[in-house]
Each structure stands twice: as structure tokens, then as C-alpha cells.
TrEMBL record:
A molecular function (GO) term: glutamate:sodium symporter activity
TM region positions: 6-28, 40-59, 65-86, 93-122, 158-181, 231-251, 257-276, 288-308, 320-340, 384-408
Primary localization class, coarse: membrane
Protein's membrane topology: Multi-pass membrane protein
Domain of life: Bacteria
Any one annotated GO CC term: plasma membrane
NCBIfam families membership: gltS
PANTHER family from the UniProt entry: SLR0625 PROTEIN, SODIUM_GLUTAMATE SYMPORTER
GO BP field: L-glutamate transmembrane transport
Family: Belongs to the glutamate:Na(+) symporter (ESS) (TC 2.A.27) family.
Protein's name in the database: Sodium/glutamate symporter
Lineage of the species this protein comes from: Bacteria, Pseudomonadati, Pseudomonadota, Gammaproteobacteria, Moraxellales
Length: 412
């Protein structure tokens, strides 16, 4: 029997998952030591409980996908609204190098998937499903390309395989990022972990509104001083971004400019912020954007993991599990030996490697959560929080779509 949670019950359940995750991370040394994000910790427990209930009693729940999507869009809009052109310039050559590194990884990811599929005697396109389509692309890209592969390329069950692979990637991306960064930080003695007292003192110290130095998402638990007026104005900006995203998604459908809705939400944020700030000299309340963005990030991840049906992963064919396992190892090795090294082999590079694991296997929200878990323990990384949200949310989807199109031409 399946129970459907409406938006109110879904929100309540997500908050409970977040509180559970916070309790687990604060009280289990292993989770705190290896920087497992709170939504991932709580979400996995909820998913396991759901699996047990389903297997023994046959009950399952379906959460509100509309609410989950809304929080995802608000998160991506917050990235766009935080991106003024001055901050983009701060990324400098590091932004370009990181883009090159993740572009090469998308090619590597598809090479691994297609090669192993060929060796295992299954359709090479299934290797792409277990490649950048679902891992770098996430559930949205998996859904879009799953239908195309089923209809135009005859891959039966492509949509189901894609969703299961994306689910696997979302879980793994949130698990390997923190431990990998911790390993790199300790191996090269890049930073010293903060004590519990230091973390508590920092979180209770309000963020000061220093122009040009504010970087969003770094410390989600730190106090942000905002007013009701700031909050109302910022909510209006978010509403404008989501309206723009909905309009552009429909307008661009079937054209060369067809993009996922969340990309349009991010682009709308970038355009709106820079037009208001640069032309009309309107003050943008970064702290309010940060509060709403962090809240949306946590709630989205909690809902995504709460809605996982782990029993669907049991239906994955053996060869697909082999490919996904190989992709996990490839991601970890690439982040450690390529991403970390080309980005400078320093603390920022370690945080960037954790972020790459997040969106290279799962999604940009997972990448940000990975980095938050690291910086909460070891300290700020402005560079990582400037580069990863924009690369993971915007540029990587454009690059991924291009690579997928080029590869598919060989199978037409």
C-alpha cells in the first residue's frame, strides 16, 4: 500500500529528517569526523527505515514532488542572485581551470561507462545511462534523456535505469566527498579542524555585511541578521526568478535553447541581480538570499533522500552495478589526482574536490552540502564557494548536454 504525502506532510517529514541528521552528526563521531552532510545522514536513515517497512509490511510513501522541485529551483535561483559579475571575476583563472577539469571528467565518465558496457556484453548506451547522463546530470537529466533513449534508440527501461542510477549517484556523491577531502587535508596537512567551542562561537557570531567579502552558503548554521522587509523583498526576487524559469522553459522547448528549468532559474537570478544592482543601483540583500538558499538546499536534499525507494536499486542488473561501482572509484581517483592537483593542492583544492564528487556523482546541492560539511570543520574556502555553485549548476549542464549529443551521433 502506498501513502501520498501532500506538501504539508512532506515539509514536516523533511524537517524531521533534517533534525535527525543534525542529531546523528552531532552525536556520532564517525559522521562528524568524516564530514557527512546532515541531510545525507538523516535522509539515509529515513530511506533505510522506508526500505524495512516496505519489505516487511508492504507500505511505502510518495512525497510531494512539486514541493521538492520548488525548493530545488529556489536554491538554484539563490545561486544566480548571489552571482554579481564582480564575484565572477574573482573566480579568475581558477574558474577556467575547474571548468576544463570537469569537462574532461564528463568525457572520462562516459568512456568508463561505454567501455564497461561493451566488455560486459550490453548495449553501450546503457553505459551512458550509467555515465554522465545520470551521474553528472542527476535525476532531471536522467528523466529527459531516458525518454529519448527509449523512443529514439530502443533502450527498453532506460527511464527506470536512469532514475535508479541517479539515485545511486545522489547517495554516493554525498558519502565520498567529505571523507575524500578529509583524507587530502590530513595527508598534506592543509588545515586544522576547529573545536566544538570554536564552531559554536563562530555560528553565534552574526555575519557582518562587508561589501565584496560576503560569500553565500559557506556556514549554513551561522547567524544572519535580516529584517522582515529584507525577507519580503528577497522573496519577490525569488518569485521573479521562478516565473522567468517557467516561462523560458516553455518558450525554449524544442529549440536550440532548450534547457532544464533549474538552469533558467539560475540564469534568471544572474540577470535580475546584475540589472538591478548595475543599472538601477538597487541594494541586494545577500544575507537574506543566503538564508533562503541554505534553507532550500537542506530541505531539498532531505526531501530527495526521503523519497528514495531503495528497493528499486535491487532491480538494477548486475552489469549496471559493476559500472556504477567503477564510476564511484573513477570519481574518487579523478577528484584526488586530477581536480585536487590542477586546482593547486591546497585547502581550497581539497574543498573543490569534495564539491566535484558531489555534482560529479549526484547534483549541485550535494556538492554544496559536501563543502559545507568540510568548511564547517576546517574553515572558510571562499574560492570553492565562488566556483562550484556556478560551475555545477550552470556550465556543467551545458557541457554535459553537448558531450552527450556528440556521443549519441555515433549511435544513430
Amino acid at each position: 500500500m502506498e501513502f501520498t504525502f501532500n506538501a504539508f506532510y512532506t515539509l514536516i517529514a523533511a524537517v524531521i529528517v533534517l533534525l535527525l541528521g543534525r542529531f546523528l552528526v552531532n552525536n556520532i563521531d564517525f559522521l562528524r569526523r568524516y564530514n557527512i552532510p546532515e541531510p545525507v545522514a538523516g535522509g539515509l536513515v529515513a530511506a533505510v527505515v522506508s526500505l524495512i517497512v516496505h519489505n516487511f509490511w508492504g507500505y511505502s510513501i510518495t512525497t510531494s514532488s512539486a514541493l521538492q522541485t520548488s525548493f530545488m529551483l529556489i536554491f538554484f535561483a539563490s545561486i544566480g542572485l548571489s552571482a554579481n559579475f564582480a564575484k565572477l571575476r574573482e573566480g579568475g583563472i581558477g574558474l577556467v581551470i575547474f571548468l576544463i577539469a570537469i569537462s574532461l571528467f564528463i568525457i572520462v565518465q562516459n568512456f568508463v561507462g561505454i567501455s564497461l558496457a561493451t566488455v560486459l556484453g550490453i548495449d553501450p548506451l546503457i553505459g551512458m545511462i550509467a555515465g554522465s547522463i545520470t551521474l553528472t546530470g542527476g535525476h532531471g537529466t536522467a528523466g529527459a534523456w531516458g525518454e529519448i533513449l527509449e523512443v529514439e534508440h530502443g533502450i527498453q527501461g532506460a527511464l527506470a535505469l536512469g532514475m535508479a542510477s541517479a539515485t545511486f549517484g545522489l547517495i554516493i556523491g554525498g558519502i565520498i566527498g567529505g571523507p575524500l577531502a578529509k583524507l587530502l587535508i590530513n595527508r598534506y596537512q592543509l588545515a586544522t579542524p576547529s573545536t566544538d567551542a570554536q564552531i559554536e562561537q563562530r555560528d553565534n557570531t552574526p555575519v557582518e555585511p562587508v561589501p565584496g567579502e560576503f560569500v553565500p552558503f559557506e556556514y549554513p548554521h551561522q547567524v544572519r541578521l535580516i529584517t522582515a522587509d529584507n525577507a519580503i523583498t528577497t522573496l519577490g526576487l525569488f518569485a521573479a526568478c521562478l516565473a522567468f524559469a517557467e516561462f523560458m522553459t516553455g518558450y525554449a522547448k524544442g529549440t536550440l535553447f532548450e534547457l532544464p528549468t533549474f538552469v533558467w532559474a539560475l540564469a534568471g537570478g544572474v540577470i535580475l541581480r546584475n540589472v538591478l544592482e548595475g543599472i538601477f543601483k538597487v541594494t541586494i540583500f545577500d544575507r537574506a538570499i543566503d538564508v533562503f538558499g541554505n534553507a532550500s538546499l537542506s530541505l531539498y536534499l532531505a526531501m530527495a533522500l526521503l523519497s528514495l525507494k531503495l528497493w528499486q536499486l535491487a532491480d538494477l542488473a548486475g552489469p549496471l552495478m559493476v559500472i556504477l561501482g567503477a564510476q564511484t572509484i573513477t570519481m574518487a581517483l579523478y577528484a584526488a589526482f586530477i581536480t585536487f592537483r590542477v586546482m593547486g593542492k591546497n585547502y581550497d583544492a581539497a574543498v573543490l574536490a569534495a564539491g566535484h564528487c558531489g555534482f560529479g556523482m549526484g547534483a549541485t546541492p550535494t556538492a554544496v552540502a559536501n563543502m559545507q560539511a568540510i568548511t564547517n570543520m576546517y574553515g572558510a574556502s571562499h574560492k570553492a564557494f565562488l566556483i562550484v555553485p556556478l560551475c555545477g549548476a550552470f556550465f556543467v549542464d551545458l557541457i554535459n548536454a553537448t558531450v552527450i549529443q556528440v556521443i549519441l551521433k555515433f549511435f544513430v
